[in-house]
Amino acid sequence: MRALTYFVGITIDGFIAAPDGDVSLFPMLDDILGFMAQDYPETIPTHLREQFAVDAANKHFDTVIQGRSTYEPALAAGITSPYAHLRQYVVSRTLGGSPDPAVEVITEPIAKVRQLKAEDSTFGIWLAGGGKLAGALLPEIDELVIKHYPVVAGHGTPMFDTGFEPTAFELADRKWYPSGAAVSRYRRC
């Protein structure tokens, strides 16, 4: 069975974006970009891969699922297929239809994730965000890869926007970087 991995950046106080969804509060740290390019190249958007000298094959994921708020910045920039090197799903009840044939808009994320997990593949599924979608999919998340940035936001979009739902994960690995950032990998217990 394929795994669903929530690969996300967070502030010290646990936010994945500003209150308006802006992610520019996260600094462009060379060591974290290097980690992503080397270990998770598929998480770098297609239109930025050349700029960051990423031409590596996908290592972990062949599919990405994201909420509309996560997808919206790409649309605002005129990019309708931000991860053309992956199969792309956007969860939205308001988007209407897909602006690109390579992006499928869905309204039932749990059913879709269960269907994707049942597929025969050596690659996993990347949950790119946002907090509401992660909260809805918490029962299906198998792994967390968290990029901890040395920033305090004070308020914003939480990593999981859900009700009280304690869910145990165990630390599998953590690496600290000279910039003060860290990357932690957790597996569901």
TrEMBL record:
Protein name: Dihydrofolate reductase family protein
Domain of life: Bacteria
Native organism: Rhodococcus tibetensis
One protein family per Pfam: RibD_C
InterPro entries to which the protein is assigned, alphabetical: DHFR-like_dom_sf (IPR024072), RibDG_C (IPR002734), Riboflavin_Biosynth_HTPR (IPR050765)
All residue ranges annotated as the Bacterial bifunctional deaminase-reductase C-terminal domain in the record: 4-172
